Amino acid sequence: MNDDKVDNGVSAEKYSTIHYRNYLGLDKILNAQHLRSEVLDDKPAHEEMLFIIVHQVYELWFKQIIHELESVLTLFAQDDVNEKNIGLSIHRLERVQKIQELLIAQIGVMESMTPLDFLDFRNHLFPASGFQSMQFRMIENMLGLPAEGRLTYNGCPYFSVFTEENQAKLKDIEVAGSLFDAMESWLERTPFLNIGDFDFLDRYKAAVDKMIDKEAKAIKASPYLDIHEVEMRLKMLGNTDTYFQSVLDEDRHNQLVADGTLRMSYKSTIAALLINLYRDEPLLHGPFKLLTCFIEIDDALTTWRYRHAQMVQRMLGNKIGTGGSSGFAYLNETAVKHPIFKDLHNISTLLIPRSELPELPDDVKRQLSFYYTAQKSA
Fold it and tell me: What is this structure's pTM?
């Protein structure tokens, strides 16, 4: 018998033990820190090691985020998203959130290096820059940051710093569809908008009219407001032709999408609104949590951008970045202009109190309940 075979004919190498160091590739990882100050100045700058390791760790976590986002995109690539996949997607997106928390906290580690420490080796970084992180751009594209909505990089498209091969990869991600696209398509297929005789939108419109009328009467009747304050508050309150216009008028909503004010389709917006309003119904727990995950990932990304900008301002003041950008000014502006799921944030504008919420018919409540509960109440 061949010594390289086990009894079932499978190679013994498959079952050989592996050393911790080899499994993790530690020789490659731990020898991947090359201090340019040591080579070019013959005197290593102590803080350069920290600078390199922090950015390497970022890239490792970016790789894991890409791994999670790819899996969620695959789950949502089907015409009918299995309910089990909603829970799995939530789990993986929550992992992305936890990683983002680490990325934000890691900025504090970097800030343990003083601005003067950074100047000991900064001159060796030109023209390298975090703008050249291919994985970070992949994450932005996978989440759904549109190319036309991006700030330009020194007057050039964001992808101009990459090779033609990597530019093609970024374009492929855009063409394949983002998590934003997948979310929008999933919402448009949501079956809850018309269940039986329950017309959610008609009932919602009536509830909004009632709520605004009630609030307007309270403002007018207040003994603590003068006439100018009453007029101001009534103007701020708005009415169904202004404050809620984008959801009560489909044509108006579509116009706002066309001019770039809104991004989500009318149908997906209505579905997201219903899910938020009736989140307490058992079958809507998962969808509501999923939408919350998208919002929290977007919030964390914005928080990271702000913290990154603050760190750059602390380290560089008004100096230009090593990649040639305006440094702090550019980074700070991306935090303001690069949110991806702001349409989901805007749903809060359209919420009404639970006390004003249209009551669901019994047959609709049963359909939105768990099977056991629905059978018990039938």
Answer: 0.88
Contacts of 303 (CB under 8 A, 6+ apart): 104
Rounded CA separation 192/369 (Å):
12
* Structure letter (DSSP) for residue 147: G
- Alpha carbon distance 343, 348 (integer Å): 9
Backbone angles phi, psi at 17, to 5 degrees: -75, 155
Q: In whole angstroms, what is the distance from residue 215 CA to residue 197 CA?
A: 29
C-alpha span between 309 and 330 (Å, rounded): 8
Residue 155 Rama label (left phi>0; alpha psi -120 to 50; beta): left
pLDDT tens string 110-161:
999 999 999 999 998 888 888 899 999 999 999 999 988 888 877 788 898 8
* 366 half-sphere exposure, CB direction, 13 A CA radius: 9
Distance, CA of 99 to CA of 374 (rounded, Å): 38
Do 131 and 160 form a contact (C-beta atoms < 8 A)?
Answer: no
- Cross-strand bridge partners of residue 295: none
Supply 63's token pair: 């790789």
DSSP character for 198? E
Distance CA 273, CA 275 (A): 5
Interval 348-377: pLDDT, tens: 988 998 988 988 888 888 888 876 555 555
